[in-house]
Amino acid sequence: MEWETVIGLEIHVQLSTQSKIFSGSSTRFGAEPNTQASLVDLAMPGALPVFNAEALHKAVAFGLAIDAEIGKRSVFDRKNYFYPDLPKGYQITQMDHPIVGKGQVEIVLDDGSTRTIGVTRAHLEEDAGKSLHEEFEGQSGIDLNRAGTPLLEIVSEPDIRTAKEAVAYLRKIHSIITYIGISDGNMAEGSMRCDANVSVRPKGQQELGTRTEIKNINSFRFVEKAINHEVQRHIDVIEDGGSIVQETRLYDADKNETRSMRSKEFANDYRYFPEPDLLPVIIDHDYIERVAEALPELPAAKVKRFMADYGLSEYDANVLSASRAMADFYEAVVKTSGDAKIAANWCMGELTAYLNREEIEVSASPISADHLGQLIQRILDNTLSNKIAKQVFEAMTQGEGEPDAIIEARGLKQVTDSSAIEAMIDDVIAANPKQVEDYRSGKDKLFGFFVGQVMKASKGQASPAQVNDILLQKLKG
Amino acid sequence: MSLDRSQVENVAQLARIQIKEDEMADTLASLSNIMSLVDQLQAVDTEGVEPLANPLDAQALLRADEVTESNHRDDYQLIAPQAEKGLYLVPKVIE
Amino acid sequence: MLDKTIKQLSEGLAAGEFSSEELTRSYLKAIEAKNPEINAFITVTSEQALAQAKAADAKLHEKQAGPLTGIPIAHKDIFCTQGVRTSCGSRMLDNFIAPYESTVTHRLAEAGTVMLGKTNLDEFAMGSSTESSFYGPTRNPWQLDTVPGGSSGGSAAAVAAGMAAAATGTDTGGSIRQPAAFCGLTGLKPTYGRVSRWGMIAYGSSLDSGGPLSRTAEDAAIMLNAIAGHDPKDATSMDRPVDDYTSRLNEPLKGLRIGLPKEYFGEGLDSGIADVVHQAVAELKQLGAVVKEISLPRTELSIPAYYIIAPAEASTNLSRYDGVRYGHRCDDPADLEDLYKRTRAEGFGAEVKRRILVGTYALSAGYYDAYYRKAQQLRRLIKEDFQSAFDQVDVILGPTTPSVAWKVGEKDNDPVSMYLEDIYTLSVNLAGLPGLSVPCGLSQGLPVGLQLIGNYFDESLLLNIGHQYQQVSDWHQRRPA
Question: ipTM above 0.95?
Answer without folding.
Answer: yes
